[in-house]
Amino acid sequence: MIDSRYEATKHFIRARWPLTRNITLFFLIPLLAWGGAYLSQDFLTSDTAQNALFLLLVAAGWWVTEAMPPFAVSLFIIGFSIYFLDDLSFTVLSADWEKYTNTWSNPIIWILLGGFFLAIGAQLTQLDQIFSQKVLQKFGNKPATQLLVVMVLTCVFSMFISNTSTTAMMFIIVAPILRAMPRAEPMTKAFVLGIPSAATVGGMGTIIGSAPNAIAVGTMQVAGIDYGFADWMLIGVPLAFGFTFLLWWLLIRKFPTTLQALSFGAQSQEELPRVADEKDRVIVVATFALTILLWLTQPLHGIPIAATSFVPIVIFSVTGIVKSADIRLLPWDILILVAGGLTLGVVIHDSGLAFSVSKWIPDFGLVFAILLLFGYMSSFLSNIMSNTAASSVLIPIGITILPEDMVLMTLTIGLSASTALLLPISTPPNAIAYAMGYLEQKDYRYGGVVMALVGPLVIVSFLYLIFSL
């Protein structure tokens, strides 16, 4: 017989001291990380490298298990680097501690902020929804054609708007189509899977398309390599569209339909765009065009991309399109995450940890094979943890192994991070799609496995082709 007093005591303890999973992991992971760093001290070059390994293991552990919000882990990285990297004494600051906080002023942060202002301007004036709705109805009502149009639109928007926001917006736009189809109709799954898939790979297209892209370019800028907006698009846009078409082809074969035509249904009042000032829409369109034009023509006029990013920031603020209350809607957590990722990269490289770890990586003698290895590692880690975190960990190690091929390595890791489609938790777009109730976890495996296996190989091969030309 169960002792009722014993059970009551346990219940009281749980109520008064809720030792939840996250609290347990919060304390357990640093203990395990300390043990790993202690056991590795013979393989490391200095105490600083050992402290950097501890920081890396703690950050990776918290990121993977989500024991803390990702942005909070980034703040911990910056704080630890300032106080404990060189000396575990709290009263002794790390040498050159400013470089661990200066990642906040890295040009890539301002490039991202400019992109966020463009995105929020389009959202506040409902330009994104209006544009998409008009485009959809111009391509007929064939199921396969409409799926392709939806995915291509999602891909394009994700190059300039956060893939999470793009996914949420596109689900609003296709909601009438989904409602008009029977719930058991296979094409519903194709639409619900196609949108997050295209949003994720669409992020490959531009520097501001995803945080791993920003980490890659930020790392190059720290090393004195000026890799421009147009340079990235030359690589990213063909890959984004190519993977979008591949995923579309896979979906229409995985979920064949007998429907001859789709019904667009009717939008509810909640889904219709709110009334916005037409003047504001004109300003947003003109600002969008001017900013993108300046980004693409940077080699001609010489204005840095980060400086150009102030165009939408200033115009939208001065004209009142983005008001004080709207500033809170910006994804500040992404900026914190990127800044922390850049700091972790600096720590891993400057402490000598990257050099020590690079000696553990087998030397295949072929640059292609090493790039492919890191591409698959980036894809795998991005499926189980934040792709920003995965890039932050792998890039400093990769460029230590291939310093002469730094651009190829950073591009490989950054782009491969956007091939993570295997699990509902792999990306926020996947999670949004899963929450709609149309999908089971097994539905992600088909496209996810193909992208995990084919994605890095295609990326590395394409990079070799472009750079050889």
SSE order and pairing:
Layout lengths: L3 H13 L4 H19 L7 H19 L4 H14 L14 H4 L5 H18 L2 H10 L6 H16 L4 H18 L5 H17 L8 H12 L6 H26 L23 H19 L1 H4 L3 H4 L1 H10 L4 H4 L4 H19 L2 H6 L8 H18 L2 H15 L4 H11 L11 H8 L9 H24 L1
Helix pairs in contact: 2-3, 3-4, 4-18, 6-11, 6-16, 7-8, 8-9, 8-10, 8-12, 9-10, 9-23, 10-12, 10-23, 11-18, 11-21, 11-22, 12-24, 13-16, 18-21, 20-21, 20-22, 20-24, 21-22, 22-24
Features:
mainly alpha, 469 residues
Describe this structure in words.
- Helices cover about 70% and strands about 0% of the residues.
- It has helices at about 5-15, 20-40, 45-65, 70-85, 100, 105-125, 125-135, 145-160, 165-180, 185-200, 210-220, 230-255, 280-295, 300, 305-310, 310-320, 325, 330-350, 355-360, 365-385, 385-400, 405-415, 430-435, 445-469.
- Helix 4 runs parallel beside helix 18 (about 330-350), helix 9 packs parallel to helix 23 and helix 20 (about 365-385) runs antiparallel to helix 24.
- The chain starts with a helix and ends with a helix.
- Mean pLDDT is about 80; it is low at about 265-275.
Brief sketch in words of this structure:
The chain is mostly helical and 469 residues long.
How much helix is in the residues? 55-70%
> What is the molecular shape?
globular
Structure summary, number of beta strands: 0
The low-confidence parts are 266-275
- Outline the biggest β-sheet: none
Mean pLDDT: 81
Class from helix and strand fractions = mainly alpha
| Fraction in beta strands | under 5%
Measured between the Cα atoms of the first and last residue, the distance is 78 Å
Order of secondary-structure elements: HHHHHHHHHHHHHHHHHHHHHHHH
Rounded to an integer, what's the Rg over CA atoms?
A: 24 Å
Q: What is the number of helices?
A: 24
